[in-house]
Amino acid sequence: MKEFIKEDKMSSLIHSNHNLLPVIHRFGIRLGFRNKTVEELCRQYAINTAFFLSIVNTFHNPKYFPEEKLLAFSPLLIIDYLKKTHRYYLNYSLPRIEKLFHELQESSRSSNNEMQMVEDFFRDYKEKLAHHICDEEQKVFPYITSLVNEPEKLSDKKVHLGFEEEHKSIDLEIDDLKNLIIKYINPDYDELICNELLIEISRFGKDIIDHSRIEDAILIPQVNRLQQEV
Question: Is 126 helix (H, G, I), strand (E, B) or coil?
Answer without folding.
Answer: helix
